[in-house]
């Protein structure tokens, strides 16, 4: 498998995981304004990450604030939504390898 094929496989795997995270977020009832805002920000980040290469929104995928937002979400939902927290932490690890 050449480097281009590896990148395509990695992108496909990342896309599937982001779609799964999107479904998980949709099922969460945050219970308060702060939680709702964090989930809305996560949804916007996922939308940007899933944008086709070269799309304007995809340029935002490596902003330093994205990682900080995801880390803040992990901390915020840790006690109330452990499954979401695990998924977010896994995605942070995955995305860290890609420059997030």
- Our Rg estimate from Cα atoms comes to 14 Å
What fraction, in percent, of the residue positions are helical?
Answer: over 70%
Assembly level = single chain
The H/E string reads HHHH
CA-based shape: elongated
Unreliable runs, pLDDT <50, ≥5 residues? none
Distance between the termini: 25 Å
Counting DSSP E segments of at least 2 residues, the number of strands comes to 0
What's the tally of helices? 4
Characterise the protein shown here.
By secondary structure, this protein is mainly alpha-helical. It has one domain (3-96). The protein has four helices and no strands. It has helices spanning 3-26, 33-50, 64-77, 82-96. Helix 1 runs antiparallel to helix 4 (82-96) and helix 2 packs across helix 3. The longest helix has 24 residues, at 3-26. The radius of gyration is 14 Å and the shape is elongated. The model has no long low-confidence stretch (mean pLDDT 81).
Layout of secondary structure:
Blueprint: H1 3-26, H2 33-50, H3 64-77, H4 82-96
Helix pairs in contact: 1-2, 1-4, 2-3, 3-4
